[in-house]
Each structure stands twice: as structure tokens, then as C-alpha cells.
Amino acid sequence: MDEKSFWHIPVLFQEYIDSLNISITKRNIVVDCTLWLGGHAAGIIRKLHEGDVFIGFDLDNDNLKSSRETIEKSVGGFAKENGITIRCIHANFRDIKAKLSELGIDTVTAVCYDLWVSSAHFDDADRGFSFRFAGKLDMRFDRENDGKTAYDLVNRMSEKELIEILRIYGEEPKARFIAEAIVKARKLKPLETTEELTKLIEETSYDPKSVVRSFQGIRIAVNDEFGSIETSLKDTISLLSPEGRCSVITFHSLEDRLVKQIFAEYLQAERDEFTGQDITPALIKKVTKKPILPTEEEMKQNKRSRSAKLRIVEKK
Ligand SMILES: C[S@@+](CC[C@H](N)C(=O)[O-])C[C@H]1O[C@@H](n2cnc3c(N)ncnc32)[C@H](O)[C@@H]1O
After folding, report:
1. Rounded Cα distance, 164 and 40, in Å
2. Which of 44, 101, 177, 305 has its CA 20 to 30 A from that of 13?
3. Is residue 305 within 6 Å of ligand 1 at its C-beta?
4. 127 CB under 6 A from ligand 1?
């Protein structure tokens, strides 16, 4: 186990793996949408059998490389001996349908998401995710894509758009003042670094939490994180076979609310308001009434797990 895998303990490990309902009595096709260090992935693969398929995605090529190494080292031999197919793919999970279709797959038995932003992102100054380090304003998960960076957003968006991003994705109460200050400052010179942005927010808000919240809002917007979650979860529900499972770990109330709302759309049948008859039946059911939370023991051992929530649904 390398240094990175050592300090990253996969959250709700057993609960997440068990939630996927992997069984010897069926052919399992499992998709892990967020590979990173492949900790969960290795646990999932260990439960598979001959003929089963494991597919993993990561949008960040460095993280994908880490997961390929961990998987090869920890379960590569096991998979070969047992006839389990493994594919680790550089992709945004929002493209789950297209990526699986390229592999000739149109139904799967389980899909899982561990939505925390990896610490590899925050600890690398060069990526521009963290106000703790001086770096260029970047914040893209996928650096191989020419998509917008934090620099583009901060320097080119209208004041109104900036207010919305800071308010909705950052839940920043002083969004208007911060957006105003950004627009004023960039008229003199574009904001280029995390340091410049941090200083500007601190001087405008006098609340250190505003920096955390604003960086979060900008990061979510740069990567269209909520758009990806919504598109992907909806496609996952259509891809699942009957009794197929979808499991999602969130770490933030905004993300958890979004996942809950998307699932809610499919948990209820659509009714004709005149006849009271169901037009479209409910497509999924909850596996546990309430989300699964880490035990006291896990929270003691791994502080990062404290805000984790696991939601599981099953296709009808
Ligand atoms: C919390 S980590 C996953 C940790 C993993 N379960 C483990 O056991 O090591 C989340 C990963 O999801 C990736 N990611 C974030 N958004 C993504 C997206 N839209 N599509 C694919 N991967 C994404 C990040 O690059 C990061 O590597």
C-alpha cells in the first residue's frame, strides 16, 4: 500500500459494498463512478465471480492512474484467476450511458458514487482548488478538457451570475458584496491566483468562512458538479436491471439534498390528476428508510467520515 492509499480510508466501506447486493446467483455488472484510489473498487471486485464485470470511471486522469495501480496490485491477480473483467475508464460519470454503450452494455446490476472531492485535489497547489496554497485559478477535475477554469468564471462571468454561483453553490450570505468586489477588482487587472482571490474575499467579508464557501461555489460551477450528478443518476436509474441497486455517498448537505430530490422523482408513481390512476409506476424503492451514517467507531477512526451519508435505492 503506498503512502496515499494509507491515509485515505474509504468511507462506509462495508456498508457501501454490501449495499450493491452482489450475488453469486446472478451475473453482476457493477459500475463504480468515482474510482480515485480504488479502495472501494478493490472491495467490490473481491466480491465478484466468474463472468462478472467491473467498470470504473474517474474524470481526473491522475486519480484514474492511482486507482488502476491499486486495483492491479490488490485484486489484479484475483480478477484474472476468477475470470472477472475490469475496465477503468477516463470519463465523466454524466456520460455513463454513452460509455457503457461503447462497451455494448445497456443494463447493469449496480452503480455507486462516492461524491467527496478527493484530497489529492485540495493538496495539490497546482490544481488551484485550495485557498491554503498559492496556485493558478484552475479547479477543473479534468485538466485534459479545454473547459472553463476558475479563472474564466471569476474574470468573465457577469456580476449577476457570480452572485448566483456564490449564493446557490457556496451558500454564501455575502455573495452580492463579494461578486461586486470581484467585478471591481478585475476591471483593473484579472484575478489570476488563489491568493489574490482569497485576499479579496477576506477584505470584503471579514468572515474566514466566506473564503471556504466561495471556493466551494466556484469549484461546483467550474465542474458543473450538480449537472453531472443529475444527468448521471437519471441515466443510472434507466440502466439498472430489476432489483439493481444505486448507492450514493454524499458529504455535503447541498449534494445530499440534490440526490434525495432526484430519487424522489422516481420513488412515486405519476398519477393522472383526473382519474387518479397511475400513468407511470414508481421505478425505484428505498432500500433503507433513512440514509446510512457512519458508526461512532468509524467517526473516531476517520474524521472525514463524519458528514457522510449513504443513500441506497433499488430498481423495481
Ligand atoms: C471521494 S473520491 C472516490 C474515492 C474512492 N471511492 C476510493 O475508495 O478511493 C471521488 C472521485 O470522483 C472523481 N470525480 C468527481 N466528479 C466526477 C465525475 N463527474 N465523473 C467521474 N469522476 C468524478 C474525482 O476525481 C475523485 O477521484
Report:
1. 35
2. 101
3. no
4. no
Q: Which three cell numbers stand for residue 233?
A: 443518476
DSSP code for 117: P
Ligand 1 centre to CA of 205 (Å) is 32
Atom of ligand 1 nearest to the CA of 92: 20
Q: How far apart are CA 211 and CA 40, in angstroms?
A: 32
Show the cell assigned to 186.
478585475
The pLDDT tens digits of the residues spanning 212-231 come to: 999 999 999 999 999 999 99
Q: How far apart are CA 28 and CA 48, in angstroms?
A: 7
Question: Cell numbers of 79, please?
Answer: 480478477
Q: Which residues pair with 285 in a beta bridge?
A: 314
124: cell is: 495539490
pTM: 0.94
Name residue 118's amino acid.
S
Cell of 237: 436509474
C-alpha distances in Å from residue 158, one per residue of 53, 67, 176: 46, 39, 12
Domains defined for the chain, CATH in brackets: 3-119+226-315 (3.40.50.150), 143-222 (1.10.150.170)
95 C-beta closer than 6 A to ligand 1: no
Instruction: Judge contact between 88 and 35, C-beta under 8 A.
Output: yes
Biggest alpha carbon–alpha carbon distance for the chain: 66
In this structure, of 6-10, 22-26, 166-170, 188-192, the range with the lowest mean pLDDT score is: 6-10
Collapsing DSSP states into helix, strand and coil, what is residue 81?
helix
